[in-house]
């Protein structure tokens, strides 16, 4: 772990407008994350976790403030450059896995490398390595519907690492899993942060992550504060 911040968030504000109604989802949010840290973002439903991760991951744009990821100010990038950052610098893991149903586990993990035109031999070698890393070497040819929820999330984690991202953004990755499987997925995330040297931001209300995280950020009504580690 170095001291250089991998993520810097400054004065982030996000307002959703639907008709005359306004919802302030993020209010002047500022914090930074050092390279190699695993940071949990904890807060009840509707507190702003997804909104925060979407601004940091470049999936949405804030109304004010800036986000810097690995030295790039992503909040000011044009759409095509932002697309490249999402493909090459950031890995995403979602609650609902987001796998392509007609593709095998190996093909799903290979998708980000195809988008980047990684040579076939290199791609296939990395797919094998990543599926072994997440404990699925026996399941490479199975499609998502032939896998359990926990196994699907393992495929999604392997896929998120395909292009060697600097930052992993995981939005309630255990939200659809039973507590024991959820714990295993959190332990896997903890392990890959170490082994792949990646930095991770994980939104969760799963208490088991709190003990695995280096830091916990508490979000309440769009306001983020540092929580004491228990
Ligand atoms: P969490 O992920 O913690 O459950 P969200 O970031 O999804 O919270 O939501 C934060 C607030 O913003 C909530 O009040 C939610 O209703 C509102 N919100 C989220 N997305 C939208 C949207 N696309 N349009 C309008 N309001 C939204
Ligand atoms: Mg959410």
TrEMBL record:
Kindly indicate whether the keyword Lipid metabolism belongs to this entry: no
UniProt keyword ATP-binding, yes or no: yes
Q: Which InterPro entries match?
A: AAA+_ATPase, ABC_transporter-like_ATP-bd, ABC_transporter-like_CS, ABC_transpr_LolD-like, MacB-like_ATP-bd, P-loop_NTPase
User: Which Pfam families did the record assign?
Assistant: ABC_tran
All copies of domain ABC transporter, residue ranges: 7-229
Q: Which PROSITE patterns match?
A: ABC_TRANSPORTER_1 (PS00211), ABC_TRANSPORTER_2 (PS50893)
Give the UniProt entry's GO cellular component terms.
Answer: membrane protein complex; plasma membrane
Record-given protein name: ABC transporter
């Amino acid at each position: 772990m170095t001291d250089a911040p991998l993520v810097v968030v400054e004065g982030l504000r996000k307002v959703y407008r639907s008709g005359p109604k306004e919802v302030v989802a993020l209010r002047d949010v500022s914090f930074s994350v050092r390279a190699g840290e695993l940071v949990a973002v904890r807060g009840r439903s509707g507190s702003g976790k997804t909104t925060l991760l979407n601004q940091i991951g470049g999936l949405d744009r804030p109304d004010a403030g800036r986000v810097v990821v690995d030295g790039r100010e992503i909040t000011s990038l044009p759409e095509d450059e932002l697309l490249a950052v999402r493909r090459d610098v950031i890995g995403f893991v979602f609650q609902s896995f987001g796998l392509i149903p007609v593709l095998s586990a190996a093909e799903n993990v290979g998708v980000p490398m195809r988008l980047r035109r990684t040579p076939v031999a290199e791609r296939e070698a990395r797919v094998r390595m990543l599926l072994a890393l997440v404990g699925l070497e026996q399941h490479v040819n199975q499609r998502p519907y032939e896998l359990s929820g926990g196994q699907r999330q393992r495929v999604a984690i392997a896929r998120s690492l395909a292009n060697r991202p600097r930052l992993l953004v995981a939005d309630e990755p255990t939200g659809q899993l039973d507590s024991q499987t959820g714990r295993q997925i959190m332990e896997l995330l903890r392990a890959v942060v170490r082994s792949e040297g990646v930095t991770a931001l994980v939104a969760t209300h799963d208490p088991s992550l709190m003990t695995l995280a280096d830091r916990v950020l508490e979000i309440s009504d769009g306001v983020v504060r540092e929580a004491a580690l228990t």
